[in-house]
Amino acid sequence: MAEADNPVTAEALDPVGNRRLAGLHITAAALLAVALTVLLNLLAVRLHVTREQSFSAGRVLSPQTREILARAQGPVRVVCFLDPHHPAARPAALLLRGFQSASAQGSAAIEIGYVDPRLDLSQAAALTAAGVPPNALLFEARGRRIVVPAADLLTTDQTARAVFRGETVCAAAIARLGRAEQAVIYWMVGHGEGDPTDYDALTGYTSIAREIRHDGFDLRTLELWNPKAKGVPADAEALIVAGPQRGLAVEERAWVEAFLTRGGRLLYLANPAHASGLEGMLERWGVRVSPWTAVGRETLSGADLVVLRYGAHPITRSLTNSATVFLGSRCILPAAPADAAGADRAQFTALALTGSDGWGAKSSDAQPRLFDPREDLAGPVAVAAAVERGVGKGADIALQPARLVVVGECGFVANGALASRAGANRDLFINALNWLTGIETGTNVAGGGDAALWTGLDRRGWLRFQLLAAGAIPLVVLLGGGLICLVRRMKR
């Protein structure tokens, strides 16, 4: 009867075996957790899983973008020609929907279409035949179009993390298309300048001319000496002077200065070997092309200069971690015009500078390159600068402030330079042209709806993540199993 009242349990018969069985269960669960973690990580790598982090919580679009959408006229159609697995595809789609929502309150209605390069074969073939490459955004309005490659939507920050800067890039495209008329850029010729119609593989400028038109501008040549010209045309958004080999006549110099006086915009590329006659005018507007040649320790061939340092300016915001390459560039210095005061004082910003160990050499041919404090200009020195004058008085006299960008050499965007120099020369030039015409294309991560993307970790990062995940999850399982065993022992 006593035995019936106290039945013998399985634990009482074989307590050691049961403990071993429980341990095996916990070990098997831990191993399964490790296997599951590793498989999930491998699947994430295979599928190129990305993670987004918004830098502008609570704000979809920046005030600058909303202003651009409010000013734009007419409908704008956007075709998202992106592979769904591309790192820029999802944030671009979210951004365009934000544009569409914001534009509903203005006159520039945004129409969005999506074409998958791999699945929508007929539409993809039509876009490709029209010159639109896969993985790009196509903006169309008033019979004009701008193609933005997906690579332009991404950049990297100081930690080599991919950063989506699509808002500023797409807003700039809409700003150009949304204008009532296509912005006209004049390229001065007739004095031995770089020729935008010259296809020479080294000295021609057709590559950068194509980039200017690709960016949505109407590029035209201008012969100031032609009797029909009589000055810079009234429809000029900006004037490009690219390294004249012969000096301008007095009348031509006066016409260029008159253009600046009425709020014109000038992109001046100096010719280190020749004077243009515009040097005195440039000094009156706040910038000096000096006789010193910029040199530095960073170089590719020993004769060129690699620039990795940039000033804080809308032109250079997108050049972080980028290199520009110059050959024999003059040093650009600020000048203080005697007649400028108050609101009319020139605002000088160095755009591209040598490192702290760079300098301005009186003779750039001397080898080895050594700094001579008696003749040379101590660094760092600038090879490109932006000047804005009349910012405070524009509203009073109904004139926009004059803007100038001066670069110490003209060959940095010649065909040969763009083909052989692995740098951001093209971006510096186009960003400068955009700023001159009132479009700030530089990216500011914290300024609007842009987001950072983790497009994947490097090999060491994945190893660390897997070790952490493979260790943390099994540890939780083991602690849980140990806690269960402890509770069961305490109950016995």
Total number of helices: 14
The major beta sheet can be summarized as: 8 strands, mixed
Unreliable residue runs: 50-59, 442-458
Query: Any idea how many domains?
Result: 2
The Cα radius of gyration reads: 31 Å
Structure report:
There is one protein chain. With 492 residues, the chain is of the alpha+beta class. The chain has two domains: 58-160, Glutaredoxin, CATH 3.40.30.10; 184-436, Rossmann fold, CATH 3.40.50. Helices cover 34% and strands 22% of the residues. It has helices at residues 2-5, 10-13, 15-46, 63-71, 89-103, 121-129, 166-177, 206-214, 250-261, 279-284, 394-397, 415-420, 425-436, 459-491, and strands at 51-54, 76-81, 110-114, 136-141, 144-149, 154-156, 162-164, 184-188, 218-222, 236-242, 265-269, 287-295, 304-307, 309-310, 324-327, 330-334, 347-353, 359-361, 377-378, 382-389, 402-407, 451-454. An eight-stranded mixed beta sheet has the order 9-8-10-11-21-20-17-14. The protein has a four-stranded antiparallel beta sheet with strand order 1-22-7-6, with no helix packed on it. A four-stranded mixed beta sheet has the order 3-2-4-5, with helices on one face. The longest helix has 33 residues, at 459-491. It is elongated and about 105 Å long.
